[in-house]
Design goal:
Blueprint: H1 9-35, H2 42-49, H3 53-59, H4 64-67, H5 71-84, H6 91-104, H7 115-122, H8 125-150, H9 157-182, H10 187-209
Length: 214
C-alpha cells in the first residue's frame, strides 16, 4: 500500500486556525443565546473556548462579529453573484437566482437564523447597528463590482445608484425574513412566502434597470 503524503504544514495550520475560530464562535453563540449578547463578556467566551482573551480578539476584533460571524460572506454575497454569473446572464437575473436558491436552502446569510437568534439580534442595539454596517458594506461592494462590469471609474454615480436599488431590495427581503422569524413562522413557511416576494421585487427591479449598461 502506497503511504499517503503528510499534510503540508501550511494546510495543517490553516485547518487548526479554522477549528479554533469555529470553537470560539460556537461557544460565543451558545453564551449569547443563553444570556443575551450584552450580558456576556469576552473573558467568559475565552474561558468557555479554552483560549486567551487575546486569541478571541485576534480572530474577532469586534465582539459583535462573534455573533454575526458570517459577516464577510454577507458583505461579499451580492458582488460574488455578479462576478460569478454566466456571460449571458443579467445582473438582476443572477441575483434573483441566487436569492431564490438561498431561500430554498434556508441560508442563514439571508436571514434564516431561527427565532432565538433573531431575538438576540433585535434585543441588542450593538448587533442591530453592526448588521446595518454589514448591509452598507455589501451595497458598497456591489457598487464596485458593477463599476468594474462597465469600466466605470471607482465611485461613479450610476453603479452606486444601481447597487443601492439592488441592495435595498435585498435588505427589505432580509428584514421580512427576520420579521417572519420573530413572528414564529417556520423556515419552510418563510421560504414559501419569500418566493413570491423575491419574484415581485426582482420583476420591479428588472423593469426599472433594463436600460442600465450592466
Amino acid at each position: 500500500m502506497t503511504p499517503q503524503p503528510a499534510e503540508a504544514p501550511a494546510g495543517l495550520r490553516a485547518r487548526k486556525k479554522q477549528q479554533t475560530r469555529d470553537t470560539i464562535s460556537g461557544q460565543a453563540t451558545r453564551l449569547f443565546l443563553e444570556r443575551g449578547f450584552d450580558q456576556v463578556t469576552i473573558a467568559e467566551i475565552a474561558a468557555a473556548a479554552g483560549v486567551s482573551k487575546m486569541t478571541v480578539t485576534n480572530y474577532f476584533p469586534r465582539k459583535e462579529d462573534l455573533a454575526l460571524d458570517l459577516g464577510d460572506v454577507f458583505v461579499d454575497q451580492l458582488a460574488r453573484a455578479v462576478r460569478e454569473r454566466a456571460d449571458e446572464e443579467s445582473v438582476t437575473a443572477a441575483l434573483r437566482r441566487s436569492y431564490l436558491a438561498a431561500a430554498a436552502e434556508h441560508d442563514p446569510v439571508v436571514g434564516f437564523s431561527g427565532r432565538p437568534f433573531a431575538e438576540m439580534i433585535v434585543g441588542s442595539k450593538a448587533l442591530v447597528a453592526r448588521l446595518r454596517e454589514f448591509h452598507d458594506a455589501r451595497e458598497a461592494a456591489l457598487a464596485r463590482a458593477l463599476a468594474e462590469e462597465v469600466g466605470a471609474a471607482p465611485g461613479a454615480v450610476e453603479p452606486r445608484i444601481t447597487a443601492a436599488q439592488l441592495a435595498g431590495a435585498h435588505r427589505v427581503l432580509f428584514e421580512e425574513t427576520m420579521r417572519r422569524t420573530l413572528a414564529g413562522q417556520s423556515d419552510d413557511e418563510i421560504a414559501a412566502a419569500l418566493t413570491s416576494d423575491i419574484d415581485e421585487a426582482f420583476d420591479a427591479l428588472e423593469a426599472g434597470l433594463a436600460s442600465r449598461p450592466a
